[in-house]
Design goal:
Blueprint lengths: L3 H13 L2 H10 L9 H27 L1 H21 L21 H32 L1 H30 L2 H26 L5 H30 L2 H21 L1
């Protein structure tokens, strides 16, 4: 398991800093259209839901027992819900209304504030996602890789959400990219904290509890963040096709492990 630590941290870095891809899109596309990512967001949700219910949660229940395993699972959902409650609604990373080109009615000060608060909100959300990727990869590198890919996909529009308002407020693409990039740094920070905290007393029960908690986090992200955003910017059938394909890919991949 110790040999997986470096790989787990690397996967988390890749997933978190994929917000920079969103910034790169904002560099070259005048009006970013998230509709093209609707299928990918559905795919990401399908991967997360399938992994959570078919792989991570069952493993946790087997080690902890149903009572404790389910309790930790719902605690994970509750923690993400609490984070959402603490983040101001206009700057919540679920709300991507500002991804289209801002109009003249938006003042530069308001745009800058929106971008900065969005960066902060996304940073808060990315912290437990980093722990999720790290804990999964620590248990199973291939499983962690799938989670990292799924999280990286949905970090792309988050990067756009940060960079676009800051760019239109400052006219500085480098500053827009920097803030978006920094919002993703909290993901490897979450992994690093998880390493420092967990590794000192890591037992099969602690790892199982972490996986149950992470499963709850990923279910919340899928249902409250990925799917609503995907439906907002894409056709329903396109989104559900992505969800089903994501589940199918995971099912076939796990069968071949």
């Amino acid at each position: 398991m110790d040999g997986n630590v470096g790989i787990a941290l690397l996967l988390t870095v890749i997933a978190g800093l994929s917000t920079g891809i969103g910034s790169g899109i904002a560099y070259f596309i005048k009006r970013p259209k998230i509709v093209y990512l609707a299928f990918a967001l559905g795919l990401s949700a399908g991967v997360m839901v399938y992994i959570s219910f078919m792989e991570m949660l069952p493993d946790a229940l087997e080690t902890l027992g149903e009572g404790w395993g389910l309790l930790v699972f719902f605690v994970g959902i509750g923690v993400m819900g609490l984070i959402d409650l603490l983040v101001p609604e206009p700057e919540n990373p679920h709300n991507y209304e500002d991804l289209d080109e801002p109009t003249a009615a938006h003042g530069s000060h308001k745009l800058m504030r929106t971008g900065l608060f969005t960066a902060l909100a996304i940073g808060i959300h990315n912290f437990p996602e980093g722990l999720a990727t790290f804990a999964a990869a620590l248990s199973d590198v291939k499983l962690g890789a799938f989670i990292a890919i799924a999280i990286a996909i949905h970090n792309v529009p988050e990067g756009i959400a940060v960079s676009v308002p800051i760019f239109y407020a400052t006219k500085d693409k480098n500053k827009a990219f920097l803030y978006s990039f920094l919002s993703g740094v909290s993901e490897p920070a979450g992994a690093l904290l998880g390493y420092l905290v967990l590794m000192s007393f890591l037992t099969p029960a602690v790892l199982a509890g972490t996986l149950a908690f992470v499963a709850g986090v990923m279910i919340y992200i899928s249902l409250d963040e990925l799917l609503p955003t995907a439906h907002r910017y894409g056709h329903g059938h396109l989104v559900i096709s992505g969800v089903v394909l994501g589940m199918l890919i995971m099912a076939l991949s796990l069968l071949m492990l």
